[in-house]
Write a structure and sequence with these properties.
The protein is built from four helices and eight strands. The protein is an alpha+beta fold. The strands form two sheets. Strands 2, 3, 4, 5, 6 and 7 form a six-stranded mixed sheet that branches. The protein has a two-stranded antiparallel ribbon with strand order 1-8. The chain binds zinc ion (2 copies).
Length: about 180
Amino acid sequence: MFTLKLDEIPDEGLELEWTEEKSSLSGYLENFPEIDFDFEDPLRSKAKVSKSGRAAFVKGKVETSLRLRCVRCLKEFFYPLVSTFELALLPLKETSKEDDVELEGSDLEAGFYEEGELRLSEIACEQVFLEIPYQPLCREGCKGLCPVCGSDLNLSSCQCGGEGFPSGFAVLKDLKLDR
Ligand SMILES: [Zn+2]
Ligand SMILES: [Zn+2]
């Protein structure tokens, strides 16, 4: 995993480009058992890193492709992802009220770094986490599975007669109304 010491950032800033292979990413993902996706491609990142006093600024871009699971039909699908971000990072222990004030009114996301070190790979991974849809769909209007027989309704209409059932949340809502 790629890290950078604050002391290594020259006054004029630094432009960086790095790639995280799938193997090292899956090791990192094991720290997050609640996460249900895999990287399909390496994670490519670019960032301009600068500092002002003890604050570090990272303006970057991440690009990769993920394998997500559709919440309706439960199939895995590829999800290409490109995201740009801008972060201000402050030292975790030394942060004072003054630093907070400095950041007020700016659009920057604020975060912290520890032990004088920016964990750039982790920052890049976090940006990916933020971009993952809460309820991934393999395609807009995925018909999902028949709630009765489990057939994939995108492939064929099923023979069980349950096809007319509204799916997912619609079912829950109707049940409530009937009571
Ligand atoms: Zn689907
Ligand atoms: Zn069916």
